[in-house]
Amino acid sequence: MKYTRPLGAAALATLALTLAACNNRSGNAGNGTADTLVVQESADIPTLDPGTTYDTASGQIVENLYETLLTYDGSSISELAPQLATEWKEENGGREYRFTLREGVKFHSGNDMTCADAEYSFRRNLVTNTADSGNWFISESLLGTGANANDDKSITWQRITDAVRCDDQTLVFTLPKTDPAFLAKLAYVGQSIVDSKHAIEVGEWDGTEATWKDAVGKDLAGSPLSQKPSGTGAYKLVERSATAVTATAFEDYWGEAPKLKNVLIQKVPESAPRIQAFLAGDADLIETGGRAIIEEQLRDQDGVVVVDDLADTTAAGISLNQNIKKGGSLGSGKLDGQGIPANFFSDADVRRGFVAAFDVPKYIEQVQTGKGEARNFLLPETFPGYDGSVETASFDPEIARAAFQRAWGGQVWENGFILNASYRAGSAANQTAMELLKTNIEALNPKFKVNLTAKEWSEMIKSGTAGTEAMMPTAWAPDYADPDNFVHTFYASEGYYNPRIGAGDAQIDGWINEARATTDTDRRNDLYSQIAARAQEQALYIIMPSNPTVFVHRDNLQGAGEATFNPLSAFITGTLWKNLSKS
């Protein structure tokens, strides 16, 4: 592991100067950190543009700078509440929705929010709809397709403008068919309302028919709006650098004024300095590096509150790519012991060997301190559709050895391989999982070699989407509360994570499509059970165990805890910055 020394005098001075700048800009010089939330994490921030936000590191900031039409009611993941919309009506058998927008709302630029901003925001999402955004599921609802607009020639400007439009100051959505999950999709942070006047001024798409095709599929990660955001959220951006993001309370926020004036998000790659800062009271919230670190170093420490046994609504696994794209680390590119071919994992026995070589019980013990259970499907038990009766994969070196001996007609066992795999830098859980797998694979045959590389989060997202990773940890937090959001994402041939496994199964695709087309809960549950069983037999992923959510915060931080926790929030505490305060 790369070692980074704890924060020294220079780093602490930089932190103090950053906080002072944040305080001075908000008119509260000299308050120190009493009115500042300090968060330390390992990941970088890929974007601040809602139109392409699709990762938790970006989402936790965007959800505080921007707002959506609807939000979740308290800690519920099924009940929705008004946010930028005050009321809505469902008409035409669920094919039309009319939203009344909140009045008196201002953007950070000072512009007033109008229906035109909401219209622009959704049209922009439909037009860009990049592969690394969550706009595929809003496009499915409004256009009947999840494909990028530049890949589907049937998408026209007329279809886009018919799908979302303003009727005076009422926002109207028209769907090609009923979608029971549509309202929940609108609560996703990527569907936030952006300041259209500001966006156009800083160089974004101008929202017109004349230019829409030029904006189709445009990469928004480093967009002008990512550099200069303007939302309606309770906090506005002060500064963003490679190592920190600072925000301050928005004085003209339409809702209740935030209790904390400033927020500082710091990128601290290694766990040790994050923990040191946290125990010293210099950070209020940190990415801990996993349950084991919390138990060994943080529980029962002075000033530390551990919030544990919260619902686990995420799913995680290790993807096994059956079609590694050009640019991947294939070594020789052959089954000659010096690399792997691009289709190495297309042999089901190779996949079965890797699955049987992963020691789930040891992972639960080492990473999760004994908490959690083996899973049979990349769907949380907290969601409908999970069938506990489907058999889980077992750690069994003999099964793994036999599978590898069969794989590729015996060539894998005879010649061996060198496989290069990646995991997210700074994630102790990811690193431990991959190291456990490496150790067990290499123990089977001295000719087997697995090389591991830690990569930045933004780099992992890009390479995963490009399909160039041979094998990588993969996880999913729900966009909205429906099992399809997991099942289609992980297992469909057109699913968001398909580039990570590079494969399709016609039977699974048929079951997924049938489940998406019915509101019969019993039938959907039966279909998901069949998908789980077939996916297990095909060994499409190494499935990680469930892991009850746990996080820590300093004891002077109020508003973070089980009562306010909502697992569909991207933030560490499951709540928004505006709901936090310090005593």
Arrangement of strands in the largest sheet: 8-9-10-1-11
Secondary structure tally, helices: 21
Taking all Cα atoms into account, the compactness measure Rg is 24 Å
CATH architecture of the largest domain: Roll
Average pLDDT: 90
The percent of residues in helical segments reads 25-40%
Q: What fold name goes in the CATH topology slot of the largest domain?
A: Dipeptide-binding Protein, domain 3
Percent of sequence in beta strands: 15-25%
Low-confidence stretches: 1-32
Sheet having the most strands? 5 strands, mixed
The total tally of domains equals 3
Overall 3D geometry?
globular
Structural class: alpha+beta
Number of strands: 20
Please give the alpha-carbon distance between the first and last residues: 38 Å
Output the CATH homologous superfamily of the largest domain.
Dipeptide-binding Protein, Domain 3
**So what's the CATH class of the largest domain?**
Alpha Beta
Structure write-up:
The chain is α+β, with helices and mostly antiparallel strands and 583 residues long. It has three domains: 168 residues, D-Maltodextrin-Binding Protein, domain 2 (3-Layer(aba) Sandwich), CATH 3.40.190.10; 131 residues, Alpha-Beta Complex (Dipeptide-binding Protein, domain 1), CATH 3.90.76.10; 229 residues, Dipeptide-binding Protein, domain 3. It contains 21 helices and 20 strands. The strands form seven sheets. The protein has a five-stranded mixed beta sheet with strand order 8-9-10-1-11, with helices on one face. A four-stranded antiparallel beta sheet has the order 4-5-7-6. Strand 6 and strand 7 form a beta hairpin.
